[in-house]
C-alpha cells in the first residue's frame, strides 16, 4: 500500500497532462534546485551534528567541564534545533523527489529507523535524567544517566550520517541478485525493479 | 578554470595516481573514506561555529573566547587532520576528475584561506580573548585576499554560481543569530520579501521552468540582492552594533572564518554537481 502511495507521489501528484512531469519529477529534473536542496541538506549537518556533538561531549564531561550544562543547552541547542528544522525540511523535499526509490532503499530505511531511535533517546534523556538537572548541572563529570544518552546520541547520529551517505550507492539495489533477506527488508518484490535471487540460484 | 588548465604538464602524474599506494586500498572502500571525510567536516563545523560565534559576540558569552578555544582545540585539530587525511586519500582515488574540476580548484584555493584563517587568525585571536595582534591582522588580510580569489574563480562559471548560494545562506544564518531586537526583524522581513519576489518572478511571471534565457539572469540578480542584504546587515552588526567584548575586527574574523569553511564545503559538494 505504501509502495502504491509513493509511486503515485513520484509519478502522479501534480501531473497536468500525459506528457507533463509530476511535481516529484519536476523537482528531480530541475536545473539547479535539487542540487541546492541536497547541498543545503548536507551542509546543514555541519550545524546540526557539529553543535549536538559539542553538547554531547559536555554531557560526557569531556569539554567545557566548568560550564554548566544549562548554559550550553541555552546557548548552543537553539542552533541545533534550527539545523534540525532545516534538515527535516530539505530531507522531506529530497524524499519527495524520488519517494518510490528511497522507499525501497535499505540505507534510507536504516537512516529513518536510526533517526527515530535518536529521537527516542532524546525523550528518554529529557524525562529521566533532565528532571534532576539541578543535581548535575555544574558537575564536571555528569552521572551515568547523562553520559549514556550522550554516547548513544553521538553513535546514532554518526550512523545516520553513514547511512545517508550510503543511500547513493547501489550495492543492495532492488533488481540486483541478492539474498532473500535483503529483498524482503527493502520490499523489492513490490518495486519496479523487482526482486532477484542470489546469483546462480 | 581548473588545475589542468594551469598545470597541463601534470596530467600523466595525475593519471598515474590511481595505481599509487594507498589508492588501490582506498578505492574499493571509497564510500567509507567519504563518510570519514564528511564526519570530520561536521565535527569541524561544530568547533568553528561555537568558537566564531563567540568571537562575533554571541553564543557562549559567559565564557571568555580563550576558554572556548582551549576546550575545542583538540577536537578542532582532530577534525582538520581528519578532513585533510581523508581528503588526500579520496582525492587520489578520484584524481583525474578533480584535476579537471573548476569546483575542486575553488575548494583548494579556499582551503588555503581557511587554514590561514583558522591557525594564524582565529586561534591566536581567541587565545587573546578577542585582541587582534599584528600577525593575526596580517594573516587576516592575506587569507581574505585568497578567499576573495576563490569566490572570483567560483563565480567565473557564469555570474553567481549555485554553489555560492550556500555561502550566502550560511552568512544569512550567522547574521540572523548575531542581530538582535528590531534589527533582526527588519533583516528577516527584508530577506523574506526578496525571496518571495524571486519566487513570484521565477515561478509565476516566468512559467516555463526551462526558460533559461530569462530565469538565469533573474535568479542571478536576486541571489546578488540577497547577498547584498546579508552583507549590509553583517556590516551593521560588525561596525554598528554594540558588543563591548568583541571589537570590530574580531567580529570580522568570526564571520570570515566561518564563511570561508562553508566555501570549502560548498565547492566540495559542487564537484559532483558540476561534472
Descriptive terms for the model:
heterodimer, A: 201 residues, mainly alpha, 66% helix, B: 275 residues, globular
Task: Offer a concise description of the structure.
The complex is a heterodimer of chains A (201) and B (275). Chain A is an all-alpha fold and 201 residues long.
Overview of the molecule:
The complex is a heterodimer of chains A (201) and B (275). With 201 residues, chain A is mostly helical. Chain A has 9 helices and no strands. Chain B is mostly helical. Chain B is built from 12 helices and no strands. In chain B, helix 4 packs antiparallel against helix 12 and helix 8 packs parallel to helix 12 (248-274). The longest helix of chain B is centred in the N-terminal third of the chain and has 29 residues, at 65-93. The two termini of chain B are 13 Å apart. In chain B, 45% of the residues are buried. The model of chain B has no long low-confidence stretch (mean pLDDT 91). At the A-B interface, helix 3, helix 4 and helix 8 of A face helix 4, helix 5, helix 9, helix 11 and helix 12 of B.
Amino acid at each position: 500500500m505504501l509502495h502504491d502511495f509513493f509511486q503515485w507521489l513520484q509519478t502522479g501528484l501534480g501531473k497536468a497532462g500525459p506528457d507533463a512531469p509530476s511535481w516529484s519529477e519536476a523537482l528531480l529534473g530541475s536545473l539547479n534546485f535539487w542540487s541546492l536542496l541536497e547541498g543545503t541538506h548536507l551542509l546543514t549537518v555541519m550545524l546540526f551534528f557539529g553543535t549536538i556533538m559539542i553538547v554531547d561531549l559536555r554531557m560526557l564531561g569531556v569539554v567545557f567541564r566548568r560550564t554548566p550544562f544549562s548554559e550550553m543547552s541555552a546557548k548552543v541547542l537553539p542552533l541545533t534545533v534550527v539545523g534540525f528544522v532545516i534538515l527535516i525540511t530539505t530531507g522531506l523535499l529530497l524524499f519527495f523527489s524520488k519517494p518510490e526509490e528511497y522507499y525501497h532503499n535499505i540505507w534510507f530505511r536504516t537512516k529513518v529507523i536510526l533517526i527515530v531511535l535518536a529521537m527516542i533517546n532524546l525523550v528518554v534523556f529529557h524525562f529521566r535524567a533532565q528532571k534532576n538537572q539541578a543535581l548535575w548541572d555544574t558537575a564536571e563529570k555528569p552521572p551515568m544517566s547523562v553520559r549514556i544518552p550522550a554516547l548513544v546520541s553521538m553513535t546514532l547520529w554518526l550512523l545516520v550520517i553513514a547511512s545517508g551517505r550510503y543511500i547513493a550507492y547501489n550495492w543492495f539495489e532492488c533488481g540486483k541478485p541478492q539474498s532473500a533477506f535483503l529483498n524482503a527488508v527493502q520490499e523489492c518484490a513490490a518495486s519496479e525493479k523487482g526482486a532477484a535471487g542470489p546469483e546462480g540460484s | 578554470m581548473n588545475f589542468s588548465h594551469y598545470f597541463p604538464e601534470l596530467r600523466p602524474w595525475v593519471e598515474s595516481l590511481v595505481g599509487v599506494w594507498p589508492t588501490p586500498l582506498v578505492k574499493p572502500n571509497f564510500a567509507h573514506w567519504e563518510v570519514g571525510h564528511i564526519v570530520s567536516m561536521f565535527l569541524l563545523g561544530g568547533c568553528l561555529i561555537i568558537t566564531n560565534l563567540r568571537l562575533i559576540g554571541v553564543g557562549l558569552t559567559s565564557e571568555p573566547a580563550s576558554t572556548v578555544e582551549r576546550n575545542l582545540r583538540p577536537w578542532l585539530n582532530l577534525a582538520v587532520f581528519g578532513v585533510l587525511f581523508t581528503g588526500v586519500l579520496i582525492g587520489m582515488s578520484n584524481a583525474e576528475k578533480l584535476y579537471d574540476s573548476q569546483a575542486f580548484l575553488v575548494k583548494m584555493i579556499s582551503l588555503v584561506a581557511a587554514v590561514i584563517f583558522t591557525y594564524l587568525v582565529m586561534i591566536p585571536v581567541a587565545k587573546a580573548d578577542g585582541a587582534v595582534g599584528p600577525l593575526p591582522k596580517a594573516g587576516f588580510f592575506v587569507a581574505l585576499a585568497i578567499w576573495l580569489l576563490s569566490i572570483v574563480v567560483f563565480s567565473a562559471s557564469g555570474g553567481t554560481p549555485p554553489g555560492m548560494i550556500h555561502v550566502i545562506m550560511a552568512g544569512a544564518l550567522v547574521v540572523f543569530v548575531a542581530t538582535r531586537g528590531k534589527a533582526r526583524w527588519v533583516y528577516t522581513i527584508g530577506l523574506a520579501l526578496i525571496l518571495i519576489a524571486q519566487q513570484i518572478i521565477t515561478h509565476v511571471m516566468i512559467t516555463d521552468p526551462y526558460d533559461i534565457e530569462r530565469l538565469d539572469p533573474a535568479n542571478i540578480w536576486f541571489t546578488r540582492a540577497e547577498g547584498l542584504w546579508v552583507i549590509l546587515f553583517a556590516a551593521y552588526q560588525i561596525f554598528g552594533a554594540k558588543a563591548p567584548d568583541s571589537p570590530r575586527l574580531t567580529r570580522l574574523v568570526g564571520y570570515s572564518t566561518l564563511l570561508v569553511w562553508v566555501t570549502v564545503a560548498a565547492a566540495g559538494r559542487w564537484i559532483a554537481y558540476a561534472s
